[in-house]
Design a protein that fits this description.
The complex is a heterodimer of chains A (499) and B (174).
Chain A lengths: L1 H11 L2 H19 L5 H12 L4 H26 L8 H12 L3 H35 L3 H18 L4 H14 L3 E2 L6 E2 L13 H21 L20 H6 L1 H16 L8 H12 L11 H25 L5 H12 L6 H6 L1 H29 L7 H18 L4 H19 L4 H24 L6 H4 L1 H29 L1
Antiparallel strand pairs in A: 1-2
Chain B lengths: L16 H5 L1 H19 L9 H25 L13 H20 L1 H15 L5 H22 L8 H13 L2
Helix pairs in contact in B: 2-3, 4-5, 5-6
Classes of the chains: A mainly alpha (499), B mainly alpha (174).
Chain lengths: 499, 174
């Protein structure tokens, strides 16, 4: 491990990879700062670009986009009270009041500092926890993987907000889409409709571009009918850029707790950066001695929201890399990018490509350092993107979606797959089905089926194999606990509403 | 926010009010029916390959049917103000334009189709200072072409014009 860590660090420090980290952060900031453009869209749109890069360079760039976009959502949240990404909603509660009080520079600087430190915290956890988790996962057989994927899917259905039935429908839709291609038992072709391009299954990246990017392009086009652009010029004023040392000392525990919440929730499938700041903000408010300041420009609230959403980024990469189970919708796109490079996310990645894995970890730490420095120094320049008209944004997103899908293998079929996925996503959204469970089902479905076939073949069709293996039984028990606890909580909440 | 401008064009494409009111239910029914048909086709699969797809597709069909039932019950309580309208015509034109773009790209090549698509898209969305944006589409198209074709070596659909520009760019790059 030590040798790989050193080699990975040296690989991450190569000029091309440093440039990729900086470019990724800048592009991510661009996506995050423009309301309506999300981190998922940014990563999905740039995956095809990484295809021609070395795997480490491409992946470092994508982590930069991911982290940069999550941070930059704070820019419009603070300056205009418009969250750049859903992860920045709680940032508006204290960031915008600080702007109203004439301290936008302090709010933006604090957000950059908290985001960077939250990201670094999660990077350290990623570096230490992922290899240990991967080593543990190496002892897993097919039965354990079935249990783990089932736990992931159950967490997606039960922990996402909204009706269970719709999340479940989303998961089954994703798993259903994963059925296209040869079946793992006999190699029998399923649902390929005579198209040889479908024999290997639906191409995941064009599908993700369709689901996340084309839908956004149409939404932006629709928005352009009523609103020319997201905002205009903003007076930044003077004043200090960073919180005082005493403010930082006072927020030490707040920062640690919020980052830990971000990482912890990030590890769970489907709990992306858009959920965690709500939890950490509530926790910070409960623990604060200055509760009354929350919602009126509290630095504590701002630090809680921003450190947790960026810590979630590293957290979501832990199961993605160590187990091949994405921790969020963006991480699912990231997983698709890894497979596009011929890499197999999961414990074997740590055995087959240890240098690349450590380069990615070190690259992620560097990304957060660049984000912290750039966030503090360049925030004024980033705010310019607010003036771009929605019509131009919609056009750019649609264009780069088509070109991106085509660029994957120079294949026009991928473009039609992308449009087909966008149409499906539109139907699902009309039925008010969330898209995150669909994406996770699509990624996890083939993993579930392959391991189910293997586990049952090894046990001569005996289903008790999942209960006879202690680790698999333990994971299934955890899944059962999630089902019971969440069901009880939901029933209690419904009763409280009724009464 | 100093200069947020509103264009005020909120006209919507004429769509049957009944269709708009029930579109959630209809979407769920379409999904349910689609999954039911796919589940039925698993009967043609060999028996060892049938179990997992049959379970997944049947469950999906049942869940979407339940969503449709839930939506039907909820619709009775929704006020007319909550009901959505059809998309503005410009959005429909935008979608049609980008659906035609890949086919146009294969027919008239990357450069011409892209310039036309970018300018057309900006025009249908009524961007202000259209001429400036449309002229901006020319260098953007050539830049993207250069990056994809020359730098990244991605084979784009080409006509004689594209080939001419590509050979010029290759010569430029030495």
């Amino acid at each position: 491990v030590d040798g790989s860590l050193l080699e990975g660090t040296l690989l991450a420090l190569q000029p091309a990879n440093l440039a990729a980290a900086v470019a990724g952060v800048l592009l991510g900031v661009l996506f995050g700062a423009i309301p309506g453009l999300t981190a998922t869209l940014g990563v999905a749109l740039l995956v095809p670009v990484t295809f021609v890069m070395a795997p480490a360079t491409g992946m470092i760039m994508l982590t930069g986009v991911y982290a940069g976009a999550i941070y930059a959502g704070a820019i419009t949240a603070i300056l205009l009270r418009i969250p750049g990404t859903p992860a920045s909603i709680p940032t508006t509660w204290d960031g915008y009041p600080l702007t109203q009080q004439g301290q936008p520079r302090l709010a933006l600087g604090t957000a950059a500092l908290a985001s960077g430190l939250g990201g670094l915290f999660s990077g350290v956890v990623l570096l230490t926890l992922s290899p240990a988790l991967a080593r543990l996962a190496l002892t897993f057989g097919a039965a354990e993987y079935v249990a783990l994927v089932l736990l992931g899917l159950i967490v997606v259905v039960f922990l996402l907000e909204g009706p269970l039935i719709r999340s479940a429908a989303g998961v089954f839709t994703g798993v259903g889409l994963g059925l296209v291609g040869l079946d793992p038992a006999l190699g029998f072709p399923r649902y390929s409709f005579g198209q040889y391009q479908l024999a290997g299954g639906l191409a995941v990246v064009p599908m993700l571009i369709g689901v996340f990017c084309i839908i956004e392009a149409v939404r932006l086009a629709r928005q352009s009918a009523t609103e020319y652009s997201s905002g205009g010029s903003v007076e930044m004023g003077a004043g200090r850029r960073l919180p005082s040392l005493s403010d930082l000392r006072r927020n030490g525990w707040n920062f640690t707790r919020s980052s830990a919440i971000g990482v912890g929730l990030g590890v769970l499938p489907a709990i992306g950066p858009e959920t965690t700041p709500f939890v950490s903000y509530a926790a910070a408010r409960r623990a604060s001695k200055l509760k009354d300041l929350f919602g009126k420009g509290s630095l504590e609230g701002l630090i809680a929201a921003e450190s947790s959403n960026n810590a979630n980024v590293g957290g979501s990469l832990i199961p993605t890399l160590a187990l091949g189970i994405p921790g969020s919708a963006v991480a699912a796109v990231f997983l698709g990018a890894l497979t596009l490079h011929g890499l197999r996310p999961g414990p074997l990645l740590f055995v087959e490509q240890p240098v690349l894995v450590y380069a990615l970890f070190m690259g992620f730490l560097l990304v957060n350092v660049f984000m912290l420095i750039g966030g503090i120094l360049l925030v004024r320049q980033f705010a310019v993107v607010l003036r771009l008209p929605h019509a131009a944004l919609a056009t750019a997103v649609a264009f780069f979606s088509v070109v991106g899908a085509f660029a994957i293998g120079s294949n026009i079929f991928n473009v039609w797959v992308m449009f087909g996925s966008a149409l499906l996503a539109a139907v699902l959204l009309t039925a008010r089905i969330p898209l995150a469970p669909v994406v996770l089902g699509l990624i996890l479905g083939p993993l579930l089926e392959t391991n189910l076939v293997r586990a049952l073949a090894g046990a001569q069709g005996d289903w008790t194999v999942f209960l006879r293996r202690p680790v698999a039984a333990g994971i299934l028990l955890a899944a059962l606990v999630v089902v019971v606890v969440v069901s009880i909580k939901r029933v209690r909440a419904e009763r409280a509403v009724t009464s | 926010v100093a200069d947020r401008a509103h264009q005020g064009d909120t006209a919507s494409t004429p769509v049957s009010p009944w269709l708009i009111r029930h579109r959630g239910v209809l979407a769920a029914l379409v999904m349910s029916g689609g999954f039911a048909v796919l589940a039925a086709t698993t009967m043609r699969f060999p028996s060892q390959s049938r179990g997992f797809p049959l379970f997944v597709l049947t469950a999906a069909a049942v869940l979407f049917a339940l969503v449709a039932v839930q939506d039907t019950l909820l619709e009775g309580t929704a006020s007319p103000a909550q009901r959505p309208t059809g998309p503005p015509p410009r959005v429909v034109a935008f979608v049609v334009l980008w659906l035609l773009y890949p086919a146009a790209m294969m027919t008239v090549g990357f450069l011409v189709s892209t310039m036309a698509a970018l300018a057309g898209s900006l025009a249908v969305l009524h961007v202000r200072r259209l001429l400036m944006w449309a002229l901006g589409a020319v260098p953007v198209t050539v830049l993207v072409f250069a990056v994809l074709q020359v730098v990244l070596n991605i084979a784009l659909p080409q006509t004689p014009l594209d080939r001419l520009v590509a050979s010029f760019l290759y010569r430029l790059g030495g």
